[in-house]
Amino acid sequence: MRLETERLVLREWREADKGLYAEIIGDPAVRRFFPSVGTFEDASAGIDRAIQRLAVLGFSFLALERKADSRFLGMLGMAPFSEAVRAAIPGAPEVEIGWQLGQQYWGKGYAPEAALAMLDFAFGTLGLTEVVAITYEGNAPSRRVMEKIGMVHDPEADFLHPDIPDGHQLRPHVLYRIASPAPREVPVSLVAPR
Ligand SMILES: CC(C)(COP(=O)(O)OP(=O)(O)OC[C@H]1O[C@@H](n2cnc3c(N)ncnc32)[C@H](O)[C@@H]1OP(=O)(O)O)[C@@H](O)C(=O)NCCC(=O)NCCS
Question: How far is it, in rounded angstroms, from Cα 21 to Cα 38?
Answer without folding.
Answer: 9
